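Most newcomers find our protein records easier to grasp once they have seen one. Nothing more is needed to start thinking about how sequence determines fold. Here is such a record, shown just as it appears in the course material:
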Amino acid sequence: MDVTTRIANIIEKRKPLAQRIEGVEGNLKTLSATLQRLEERRNYLSNQIGDANVIGKLKEVDFSHIQLAIASELEALTRLKNRFSRDTLNIGVIGRARQGKSRLLQSLTGLSAAEIPDGDRQHCTGVRSTIHHNPNVDTYGEVWFHTERSFLDEVITPYYEKLHLGAKPLTVDEFVNKPLPQLPQNIPGYAEPGAMYEHLKRYHSQFGQYRHLLTEPSPKIIKKHQIREYTAQDTTDGQRILFNYLAVKEVKITCTFPNENVGKIALVDMPGLGDTGLGDENRLIQALGKDIDFVLFVRMPKSSGDYWADVDVKLYDAARSALVELPINLWSFLVLNQTSPNSNNGDNIKNCHDLSETIKEKYILVEKCLITNCADKEAANKLLDEILDYLTNSIDELDRKYSKACQQRLVEIHESVNAVLSKAKTILPQDSEDDYLETEEIFGELFGNNDSGWWRDITLSLQELRTELWYQRQIPDEELHEGVIAAIENCEQDKGIISCENALEKINTRIMMSSAFRAYPDYQDELRVLISHKFLSLDESLIRKVELVKNKVVEIFKSKGKLTNLSFAEGSDFFTEIIHLIPEKAFKLKSGFQVLANFQLSYRGLILPRIRHHLDGLTNISPIAGQYGQMLEPVDKTLAVSKETTAEDILTALEIDYEKAINTIQPALEELLCEPAEAVYAMVEEFIDNVILQKDIQKEWKSFLRKNRGKIWSDVFGQKEQDRQMREEWVQAVNQVTMVNKQEYFYFVL
């Protein structure tokens, strides 16, 4: 099997692991949230309970260390998921400036200094570049820019914090328009802070050169010849006149490698320590942990003599800290860059061997230390072949070890949670059997039966109200009657077109614009609507009637039923709130309360149909055959419109139609004055039938009252019920953690 196929198989095998890791991530986040809720409940109980022994036990339920472990593990899982989700195997090439990284990358990718910056003066690489092999495309680049926010947060703010420059700028305008704060004189160190400050000054002084890129959409597709101006600090001839890189987060380059059989790999060109200023080490660590499968350290010994310096050890340690789950020697090679006698560095082969032999003295542990001429394409590709051979033979085992290390920590989190839960479950003990029986006996006596207690009081009071409403159901409603008289008087005062001083002129204009055939029925429609709306005010009277009776029922439940503490609402709102408190299993009781909560009387439901019957004289419907062929009764027309019909004729007819409607509506409505009382009586009787007289309804009442007895009989059960409720809420919070802490939710390695 060739390298390309082997790499493709490795990538494909990783994908299911990434999916399973995503599931574990989701459960860890849920676990963290439920632990937070349990901790909040613990803090609440600590302030409510007076028992010092219980408070001491509550303090032992401490998840702070577990929460820290979860946060750390979520970061580790994200790195692992990213590793297994990638479509390439990524090889990171890192090293200090002027060590040959760029020359090696050029040799491996076939790109030139125009795309991969190098030089023989100062360091020139400005941003991280990822180079992908694709044998089917011409070379191009993709550029991701900082936003103004990420530029401030990730690039500028660290300088202000590290160099103690005071308040950080909140906007890019504030950063560029204000002078930089002076570097404090008492800051620890001298050269390093000064160098950092000079680099910050470069961001500040050249801001106008790259500011426009902070608002550019990402990624931006660029051509091959444009790549250097977004990745380098200087031109190919060494002029430091490029500034775009200051706004760039990352560049991806796609090209065809000289060795086309490398498969799906990517080379990541990392600016080394000291290359671009503050934050390099952190960015290096983040990139290695997130995006790199394998590290290639590049070091070029000087021909005049060299040694392993502190900066080399620092670079190695930075890479090592990026992935603590795996010993770095398992996923890294060291390349000592051999230079020829005619190079600027001269022949350094002897010093290459010296550094190779002393590498272990500095505890720089790698899988292999190789001496390779990075500028020699043939030698560089032999190096790549060796790396790929190692990866294809070892990556499965590396992935397994990496996964196993993460998996073990997840199991430890699961076990730690269980250990704390075992303490939490015993903190608030259940009532003893004797306490339970005593409480139930007291509750039973308070609830009572048909002869005594709560049940007798509530039943008797509701029946008394029912009797009262029965006697009142034939009494006309005075408020409704007054509303009818007021509406009739309003109809007499405002008759629409009939009341207008220039009624004949308006009607005549309508006839001229349309015709008498249209004018008369149109005015009939307008008067019909006018009359109907005059009676809308009756709606308020009907609503008050219903709410008044509902409040009488509420008063019974609050005074006799002691439900005041369950709801402070009145009328319909009281019954709605009680419905939400009734358990679903008490469906008869719940539906009974819904009868009262939902009942309403309205003008449109009770009165409007009666009014409409007396408005037929103001309709323009002509007698025709009915739906099933029968003839409808002809409407008694006041005016038979013809071509000779005048405005006076129409006005006279409208006056007759209007008076006829008003004169018939009033007696019809007076016949309805008892119906609201009949309706509310029926409402209350239906309610009583449902909540008092149904079979087994007492059981449902007991279930509801038992749950709320601490609020209903607070003088008897108050403290006990408060303790019980706190215990139930605590147990519920503990159980929620238990549900998400199941062992199978922590495994992604099958």
Summary: The radius of gyration is 44 Å. The mean pLDDT is 87. Strands lie at 89-94, 128-133, 140-145, 220-223, 248-255, 265-269, 294-299, 332-337, 368-372. The CA atoms of residues 132 and 266 lie 4 Å apart.
